[in-house]
């Protein structure tokens, strides 16, 4: 959003945005870290936690240096539809409250910088769930920097920062303005497509799919899912940039869609497998959160309920695609984030409306079920398809380059004891803790 030309501080909006930024950061550390950490085996939980924490460190650092400028700065000649000038606000020098993007009415630009930083961090961290147990830690550290620069920052600019997929960009001239209120394309489709590309380059874990890889700590998974749910209210409602009725609509939609998605995921499990599981409840929560993210303020309560219901069923079924097609997506990033992101993004074309306080940008239209025809639906499909292709292709090429230079994948010996081999420690004393003390000393 564009800040006001003559800046006047709105302390209420500013306080809400700062609070939102804090709880969105909590989504990654510790929320996502423990959600993923509980799903891996005990021998690699520390590595999973570390990969999430390190993403916060590297991406947060480069976001302040040039990432914000690249996503939300002024357009560059020739390439301005794809990324902004990374040097305009390098180190945030020269950023003033009357020029910044990504904040809100009466909100200092630096608050917008911090809020958007948390989105960049969690997008990169989401990828770790697909590649658990296999990637070299040093390669992952470097990859976070390169991927954020080559994929996330440009896509954020294209959709939110004035590029050609933005409501204020050129797309309104040939279809209608696409709706991505809080990151269905920029975050979830982006991370899901990237995870798939990396998985295809890295290959399968040793023993998959014949060996059953059970989550080592389901309470961790439930804890992580709960933290994600709480933080997601900042993620979605905070994306309004103000404490107003639109933020309230996003909050309510986020809540009810997630409730319904959890229920429909569990019903799907019950009919398919005969059991409703805690892992299914946690996964259903995340699926609902993912799907409602792009539509958070653009649908009414009925639309949010429908999106949550559909996402719970579709994502519960989609997690089995990896076995059918043979790609080892360890923690279902493709099934939940890619498929959930596509589901939510496309369903906007059916349910978008101004009814019940819902909001969408100028140039967008009502969905098919609310009398707007197919225009918005086609626009949502095009934008989702572009995000999939862009993220997958660029990530696949980057992965091949890293594979040629660093090897990318750990050795079989390291894969058998990731925490011990990579970090020199284990999460639990029962996992050969005495050996850790010997090797560290």
TrEMBL record:
<protein>
    <recommendedName>
        <fullName>Ammonium transporter</fullName>
    </recommendedName>
</protein>
<keyword id="KW-0813">Transport</keyword>
<feature type="transmembrane region" description="Helical">
    <location>
        <begin position="49"/>
        <end position="68"/>
    </location>
</feature>
<feature type="transmembrane region" description="Helical">
    <location>
        <begin position="302"/>
        <end position="321"/>
    </location>
</feature>
<feature type="transmembrane region" description="Helical">
    <location>
        <begin position="247"/>
        <end position="267"/>
    </location>
</feature>
<feature type="transmembrane region" description="Helical">
    <location>
        <begin position="140"/>
        <end position="161"/>
    </location>
</feature>
<keyword id="KW-1133">Transmembrane helix</keyword>
<keyword id="KW-0812">Transmembrane</keyword>
<dbReference type="InterPro" id="IPR029020">
    <property type="entry name" value="Ammonium/urea_transptr"/>
</dbReference>
<dbReference type="InterPro" id="IPR024041">
    <property type="entry name" value="NH4_transpt_AmtB-like_dom"/>
</dbReference>
<keyword id="KW-0472">Membrane</keyword>
<dbReference type="Pfam" id="PF00909">
    <property type="entry name" value="Ammonium_transp"/>
</dbReference>
<feature type="transmembrane region" description="Helical">
    <location>
        <begin position="333"/>
        <end position="352"/>
    </location>
</feature>
<keyword id="KW-0924">Ammonia transport</keyword>
<feature type="transmembrane region" description="Helical">
    <location>
        <begin position="279"/>
        <end position="296"/>
    </location>
</feature>
<feature type="domain" description="Ammonium transporter AmtB-like">
    <location>
        <begin position="15"/>
        <end position="428"/>
    </location>
</feature>
<comment type="similarity">
    <text>Belongs to the ammonia transporter channel (TC 1.A.11.2) family.</text>
</comment>
<dbReference type="InterPro" id="IPR018047">
    <property type="entry name" value="Ammonium_transpt_CS"/>
</dbReference>
<feature type="transmembrane region" description="Helical">
    <location>
        <begin position="105"/>
        <end position="128"/>
    </location>
</feature>
<feature type="transmembrane region" description="Helical">
    <location>
        <begin position="15"/>
        <end position="37"/>
    </location>
</feature>
<dbReference type="InterPro" id="IPR001905">
    <property type="entry name" value="Ammonium_transpt"/>
</dbReference>
<feature type="transmembrane region" description="Helical">
    <location>
        <begin position="181"/>
        <end position="203"/>
    </location>
</feature>
<feature type="transmembrane region" description="Helical">
    <location>
        <begin position="215"/>
        <end position="235"/>
    </location>
</feature>
<feature type="transmembrane region" description="Helical">
    <location>
        <begin position="377"/>
        <end position="402"/>
    </location>
</feature>
